[in-house]
């Protein structure tokens, strides 16, 4: 399952990334394999997505979230 497929309140554990270039950016922001992520909310038009990871809140575009594969 991809992070972009979760609904607000749902969570998962990062397994891997589908885009090597994007994965470097995401890992620099704390989205590391094995980290738990929770979707907090969507913006009014559905993009971006607010998530909690590594103890802080992060906003990602759906395109970015779709590159994160969860357990």
UniProtKB/TrEMBL annotation:
State one molecular function term (GO): transition metal ion binding
Domain Ferrous iron transporter FeoA-like, chain residue ranges per copy: 1-71
- What Pfam families does the database record attribute to this sequence? FeoA (PF04023)
Sorted alphabetically, the keyword list is:
Iron
Which InterPro entries does the UniProt entry name for this protein? Fe-transptr_FeoA-like (IPR007167), FeoA (IPR052713), FeoA_core_dom (IPR038157), Transcriptional_repressor_C (IPR008988)
Keyword Metal-binding present in the record's keywords: the answer is no
Do the record's keywords include Ligase?
no
Indicate what this protein is called per its UniProt record.
Answer: Ferrous iron transport protein A
Q: Organism source for this protein?
A: Hufsiella ginkgonis
Q: What is the lineage of its organism?
A: Bacteria, Pseudomonadati, Bacteroidota, Sphingobacteriia, Sphingobacteriales
